[in-house]
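Team,

Forwarding the record for the chain on the shared tracking sheet. I've put the sequence and predicted structure together so nobody has to dig through attachments.
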Amino acid sequence: MKILGLLVLLLSTSLHADELKLHFLHSPLGVNWQTPWKLAFSTLKNQIAPVGKKRAYSISHVFVEVKCDSTGKHIFRGMTSAPGTEDRDLVFKAKYGLGTMFHSYKGVLEKDESIIKDLAPYEGHKRHAELAIKVSPKACERMLSYASEYESLGYGAMYSGLQADPLKREGSGCSAFGVSFMRVAGLMDNFTKEWIESIDIPTRFIGGPLTGKKVNILYILTHPGARWSDKEKHIHLDAWNPEKMHAWVGKMYKQVREGQYQGKWPANISRKGNTLSLELDMSDRPVPTGTFWL
């Protein structure tokens, strides 16, 4: 009877495996953040890279999946710009230069069926990586509540610049939106610091409302020797980089596979084709209470 009871307990636990899963989609050719020139040039190359009939994700992307087996609820969410938004016009007509990184576009809150459809062509693809985090039922329910409140308050209509913080009601880009689910569920840890791109952008490369200037993209492309620098007038940016998230999954996958993983959270790995998946068990983390908003 003790053995039967143990089996029932184990089966019950597996059936109620609540989790947050972040899907990281790498850009076709990679976005190079080393210098202003490399960032602008690599971004333009990704815009014209052939991807067939698949969605391009030309500057990379993050999708959120919350699966609460304990309550039978399962959602997909993501943030993107609305079709026909003015990104090309901002670069070539309004001459925003790198000011596009701070611009807020009309947004679309992506949901469920559309995300499943967009992810399907990348199943098993090397451009797709996954981080699954086991969470407690309480944390899972809190993330569902956050997703519902974010939508009901209309923040999904704001696809905001890389500096925007969704928990400050500023709208969000795709990566900050994904990370915000970890934040409201109490899942942030030291490893997330590896996902941040931290740069000092000289204001001479920033056009638009922030500086009141026009910056031709050709100005950036004809200055290959320019660097990120705090030695001249600049704007500091800390941004969540989906490609760093993607690379981090690959690094952790290798460490677990080779028996070198030393993280504090129990880890498992799996793969489907060339899509690598890392699973961390953070189900015993304390869950925040109260408002989501800062």
